[in-house]
Design a protein that fits this description.
Layout lengths: L4 E10 L4 E9 L2 E6 L9 E4 L4 E4 L1 E3 L2 E2 L13 H10 L2 E9 L6 H12 L5 E7 L21 E5 L10 H13 L3 E5 L3 H13 L8 H4 L2 H18 L3 E3 L5 H12 L4 E5 L1 H5 L22 H12 L5 E2 L3 E2 L3 H4 L18 H11 L5 H15 L17 E11 L18 E11 L2 E5 L2 E2 L18
Helix pairs in contact: 3-6, 6-7, 7-9
Length: 459
């Protein structure tokens, strides 16, 4: 591959610590230098970034592309969804390799690698652990050899993915031994099941009742319990997709007390609330955990603004409008929302432009923190010499409104339809090559690389 040289001149470079007027010199796939008034080497392409922010490429650390739950499948593709993501400034995704019952971790990863080969973006995987019987926990020891540094566990979805407390404890202990971090979906299965059965008995299974079927208490109790078990096991954890302020506060308090624990939330929990279930199109908002009471948005924003939430992710699932609308029954509707393309502009608009966040906070929660937590730093998540040249040129001027017909996901709809956004992605670059430039996709399916990650021992 030719080592193309590019000088990005005159932009405002955003890191997790500061914003500085500087040029960025790129040679081949890596950043060579950052500084003021850098000279353009002979033959270099000079990109004028005047009036633009130069951000690190977004790492969405929780996505589901070409998802097969064993019950529902998204009809998308890695080529389609990763190209859509690039329009939103995303350069790296961390998806999931599901270990189906009776399957080895090696086979689970091989199957996902084959599916992901058309990816336009670089990618890594969390291993979804579903079939490790008692006494076989050391099977997790193969994961570092496969380049896997994180596992996914669930406290709900019986019987498919559910792990009881005994299973959680033994898997967490093994994960800690092998330098793996556990990302855990926290909802109390018994509470969710009881509430769902109660609603069903009354014939209340329409989309409007989805939020009521999975109460906030179920998430909060499970998060507290998982944190307790993780501390006992000496294992690092990420509590997935916090939808309430209390959940995020539990994680922040655990970390303050010395525990290795991290949190993530998503734009849907910061911008939407459960009043939409009483609206005209509740099908748009079927996800787990569901949207919460309006006051939870403010609680979450306060924690995000205080630096107490570590990552902003999407939990992207590209189920289509047809799949979502197939039956007005939340028990028969696949859960999950599209969001890869809208993550950055929504965070910029309702975080930075609204005065809740600074630009360094965007770089921290969308790039640096995911890279640190999932051991991609400093190759990813950093605007530093020697790092991969993954970056976004963002124009903060101008306002538009989100509309599905202007987005690129296979889903064909957005839960954020009609929301105003501030500014736009002008260009997305991955490893020194443009993926999106001036509104056009100029990348290529199959250029994405699998990112092997080393184990990381926090203690």
């Amino acid at each position: 591959m030719d080592k193309q040289t590019i000088l990005i001149r005159g932009g405002q470079v955003v890191t997790a610590e500061m914003v500085l007027a500087a040029d960025v010199l790129i040679q081949g796939e890596t950043i060579q230098a950052i500084g003021k008034a850098l000279p353009a080497p002979p033959g270099a392409e000079v990109v004028d970034a005047s009036d633009l922010l130069v951000l690190p490429g977004v790492i969405d650390a929780h996505v589901h592309i070409q998802l097969d739950t064993g019950i529902y499948c998204t009809p998308d593709s890695w080529a389609a969804e990763t190209s859509a993501a690039a329009f939103g400034g995303v350069t790296t995704v961390i998806d999931f390799a599901t270990q189906f019952v009776g399957q080895t971790f090696e086979d689970a990863l091989a199957a996902r690698m084959a599916e992901a080969s058309p990816s336009c973006l670089d990618y890594a995987f969390h291993m979804m652990v579903t079939d490790v019987p008692p006494g076989q926990e050391d099977e997790l020891g193969v994961l570092p050899e496969l380049g896997i540094q994180s596992i996914k566990l669930y406290t709900t979805y019986r019987p498919n993915y559910y792990a009881d407390d005994a299973a959680l404890l033994r898997l967490l202990e093994a994960a800690g031994r092998y330098g793996l971090i556990a990302l855990i979906h926290c909802e109390n299965d018994a509470l969710v099941t009881a509430q769902t059965q109660s609603l069903a008995a009354e014939g209340l299974t329409g989309w409007a009742y989805h939020g009521a079927s999975r109460p906030a208490l179920a998430e909060q109790e499970a998060a507290g319990r998982v944190l307790f078990l993780a501390e006992a096991a000496g294992a690092p954890v990420v509590i997935a997709h916090n939808s309430t302020g209390l959940t995020a506060a539990l994680v922040a308090n655990a970390r303050k007390s010395g525990q290795v624990a991290f949190s993530e939330t998503a734009p849907q929990y910061l911008l939407l609330d459960d009043t939409v279930y009483d609206g005209a199109e509740p099908w748009r908002y079927i996800l787990q955990p569901p949207l919460r009471a309006p006051e939870e948005k403010q609680k979450l924003w306060e924690l995000v603004g205080a630096g107490l939430v570590d990552m902003l992710i999407t939990d992207h699932c590209a189920y289509t409008r047809a799949q979502k609308q197939a039956a007005d029954d939340f028990t028969q509707t696949p859960g999950g929302l599209p969001g890869l393309e809208t993550l950055l502009p929504l965070v910029v608009t309702y975080g930075v432009a609204a005065g809740r966040l600074g630009w360094p906070d965007v770089a921290r929660m969308l790039a640096a923190n995911p890279a640190h937590i999932y051991n991609l730093w400093p190759r990813k998540g950093a605007l530093l010499p020697g790092a991969d040249a993954d970056l976004v040129l963002y124009d903060p001027a101008g306002e538009t409104f989100l509309a599905a017909d202007a987005l690129h996901s296979t889903a064909g709809y957005t839960p954020f339809e009609g929301l105003q956004v501030q500014g736009r992605v002008v260009a997305t670059m991955q490893r020194g090559q443009f993926l999106v430039r001036n509104g056009d996709f100029v990348g290529a399916p199959g250029r994405g690389r699998y990112l092997k990650r080393e184990p990381f021992f926090w203690h």
